[in-house]
Amino acid sequence: MTAYRYKALNPGGKLVKGVVEGDSERQVRNQLRGQKLRPVEVAVANRQAANTPRFRFNLFQPRISVSELALLTRQLATLVQSNLPLDECLQAAAEQSRKARTKGLLLQVRSRVAEGHTLAYAMGEFPAVFNDMYRAMVNAGEHAGYLGPVLEQLADYNEQRQYTAQKLKMAMIYPFILIGVAIAVVVALMVFVVPELVGIFAHSKRELPLLTKILIATSDFFRDYALYVLVALTALVIGLRRLLRDPARRKRWHRLQLRIPGISRLVIAMDTARFASTLSILMASGVPLLESLRIAGQVLTNLVLRDDSAAVAERVQEGSSLNRALRENGRFPPMMVHMVASGETSGELETMLERSATNQERELEMTLGTMMSLLEPLLVVFMGVMVLTIVLAILLPIFDLNTMVR
């Protein structure tokens, strides 16, 4: 059976939407009429992804958020561990979903499973939702016979991703608000307040202080060219994003990031923590080391580090130990290399990789917290200095006028 999206009119004439399963579009229409609904539109769920031109593929791929994926995975893990048949687990999870997109996605996966395909194969039709790591773990769990525990691990992993992302966003809210307020205050003073006060000095033949001249010139620039500057900045951002679509240019940009002090440390810490965590989960799920290295390398956002991970996998394939390959690469944190060496010696590589990822995430969290704590007072000081400069530029010629009167 296939999942179909539908739009229909109920007996009251109200348009309703939903997702149902059926053998054909005609059968679905008859099913809707049996429920006293008048079909308006019936189509295969997520069919637009297959029929969309290549250059617009990503736009129409069914996607769900990390929180939805974590909840969905947790529900599947609970249902699978209840010893229900897999297709019934997918059906129950679809019925519990409140979003039509997620429900249609699950029903499409269920239809492939009902046809005899594995869950990993069915999920492979939706790579924008279920990435390589997710499918590899599901595949390993199916073959080893412990799909439920593997899904539990995946749920934990996605929940941790969601928690980390939310914490980072919450930490960035206040600084961004301060930056926005600072810019708004300065622009408002330059565009609306300063031009009104300039008239006070227009009739004076006395030479204005340099600070006041700079303020007036800046105010005139903002008033006359603010819109052009905004358009230019927007065009610059769009142009840079288009340029960075080219893999060669993006790799050069990523290489530059690794050369900037401070930034390089954050980039390496974020990517290697994700790499170690993914590698640990894959190996604990029974995925071979070489395959785990290949998949874990794909979660790295920095292309230079991704190439480094591929080089590490190649050296391991040639017979080198993992810790030696990481050490010779030179970009992976020394603590991570040390813990990997300890794990290989003791036979607990998965556990040591997990500890390494936890330590790096904790260190990264502390570093970001320190940076945000420093950024907030610096922004307040910046706002104060800007406002003080504007006030002084206005008051200095006023003091000169008072001196002339005396």
TrEMBL record:
One of its GO terms (molecular function) is metal ion binding. Gene3D superfamilies: Type II secretion system (T2SS), domain F. It is found in: Cell inner membrane. Its main location: membrane. It is a multi-pass membrane protein. InterPro entries: GspF/PilC, T2SS_GspF, T2SS_GspF/T4SS_PilC_CS, T2SS_GspF_dom, T2SS_GspF_sf. GO terms for biological process: protein secretion by the type II secretion system. Keywords: Calcium, Cell inner membrane, Cell membrane, Membrane, Metal-binding, Protein transport, Transmembrane, Transmembrane helix, Transport. It comes from the Bacteria. PANTHER family: GENERAL SECRETION PATHWAY PROTEIN (PTHR30012), TYPE II SECRETION SYSTEM PROTEIN F-RELATED (PTHR30012:SF0). Belongs to the GSP F family. This is General secretion pathway protein F. The lineage of its organism: Bacteria, Pseudomonadati, Pseudomonadota, Gammaproteobacteria, Cellvibrionales.
